[in-house]
Design brief:
Elements (H helix, E strand, L loop, with lengths): L18 E6 L8 E12 L6 E9 L17
Antiparallel strand pairs: 1-2, 2-3
Length: 76
């Protein structure tokens, strides 16, 4: 990325999305490259082990995240 800070929209529960996709335009005019970032815990509390913040880590496989997971859905 080029150092810009992008705003991340949170869901109705106040949690950021589990995956974040960043499209980067191709200088040659081809299709854009999509980089995928996954949400990882930034820190945990000492006593209870609760997550105190989130950070995004680059996912080199680049598979976009799935949608909602329902109990009756087949595993992919």
């Amino acid at each position: 990325m080029d150092g810009r800070v992008l705003r991340v929209l949170v869901g109705p529960t106040g949690q950021p999305p589990k995956t974040y996709e960043v499209p980067v335009e191709d200088e040659a005019g081809g299709p854009p490259t999509v980089y995928v970032y996954r949400r990882v815990p930034a820190a945990t509390s000492k006593r209870l082990g609760l997550v105190r913040g989130w950070a995004y880590a680059y996912d080199p496989e680049g598979k976009p995240g799935g949608g909602l997971k329902w109990p009756w859905s087949k595993p992919s």
